[in-house]
Design goal:
The chain is mainly beta and 157 residues long. The protein has one domain (5-155): Thrombin, subunit H (Beta Barrel), CATH 2.40.10.500. The chain has three helices and 13 strands.
Amino acid sequence: MIQPTFLVATWGDGIFAITGHQQTQELARLSVPSLAPDGHGGALAIIEGHSLRRRLAGGQWATLATSDFDLSCCMAVRDEIYVGTDDARMLRLGGGGALEPLDGFDRVPGRETWFAGSAIVDGQRRGPPWRLRGLQRLEPAWRRYPWLRTAPQTLGT
């Protein structure tokens, strides 16, 4: 029986891969603020805030892209990879290996007013801007709970 490998990301000591009773350290002494499944048996990680890497099921790491943006989180949806930034931008990994901004996300009405932990000081808003701290793919509930397909008819709604 094949044992699963659990990956634990740290803010300054890389990733610990745990399989059964064995633990190994990967990407030692590096900051890994985000770790996510890649949808193909491997993992995606943001490394040192500027690198997107993929871990294959065998444990090898490969750099997919680097960026001048401060990267904060990542996720895979089918064959697409999305990355969030500290300044609340959304990027997509393009075919050429570049992280491309999703312009529609930047054009959301009122985006310039997004602030977290802000205060009004001398009539001006002070504080850090919003950042994308995590991404999650939402699925229709019936995919996760197949019995919900019949629930509306059963419940008469």
